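Data availability (excerpt). The following record was deposited with the supplementary files.
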Amino acid sequence: MSGIYIHIPFCKQACHYCNFHFSTSLKQKDELIAALIKEITLTSPAEEDKDIETLYFGGGTPSIISIDDLQLIFDALQQKFTFSNTIEITLEANPDDITDEKLQQWKSIGINRFSIGIQSFIEEELKWMNRAHTAAESLICIDKIRNAGFENFSVDLIYGSPILTNEQWQKNVAIVTEKNIPHISCYALTVEPKTALDKLIAQHKKAPVDAEKQAEQFSLLMDWMNAAGYEHYEISNYAKPGFRSKHNSSYWQQKKYYGFGPSAHSFDGKSRRWNISNNAVYIQSLQNDALSFEEEILTETQALNEYIMTSLRTMEGLNLEHVSLKFGKDKSEKLKVKSEKWKGKIKYINTSICLTNEGKLFADGIAADLFF
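Predicted structure:
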């Protein structure tokens, strides 16, 4: 087993573009942590799946839970799994949750990497997104993380909002590169159904997203990050050499992983399982020593299509030799033929199909066209 994902679906704010509207009552927090620990204790991993290389605390805002609760989760996990000596342990955090005291507490229990939801260094844009933190807090938190002795961390940025100009986008990216931040994840702003942003756009109170503007800002981003010496190792992710996210890379490499918590996903190499997303139902089922989840056993075609989708997004690309060995030579040959129509948007590197910068703008469409 490669990794563990802990999903803690609490958020102290309601961003316009986000679907997180969970209760953050202390009572439900306590019940959810207890249920999460119960799920871990009910797990019986096979001997070959006990060695863990990555641990990721994600979800809404896991940085708001107490150090005592985090320690309880660690203790439960270490009763069931063996952590590698080089394990990567990531905590998602908001800039305004990061204090000198918390950083030392997180370090003391083994956290060695952070993913910081900065989104923007432009004050006007943070207010437009309805974010709780300020641009100043974002800059301060980066210094705090470094001063506490953490070298491995990532920041999230969002591009393509209706109010973000190309000049402001360049300013955001320049702050990241000038501060030599080792990892950056950049996502185009998407309008999810039933979010506040979706309703405000429908009511003509906010401007809609401009797809052409998003494509332009993505293209600019690729040029700027390449010039600054970052590896564009996955469509949305850039890293200085040696600082790729081991945890997220395990997803793209289709390694096994466990997921604990409401809506968390697990993959054992052959099947995918996902927990019920409703907090209350999740808690109630585990109070009764059960777990509500759904499961899907992947067919060979589904497994191949997943490989096509995930591998094309990476710098290494879709390896035809791997397809030939795992899925059959005929599939590999068909993929080679099908890919030839995307001239200019793909390139061949040894036995792999890789996307060009232009092709990265059409990654989903190209992958879908190659599906079986």
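Summary of structural features: The first helix runs from residue 26 to 42.
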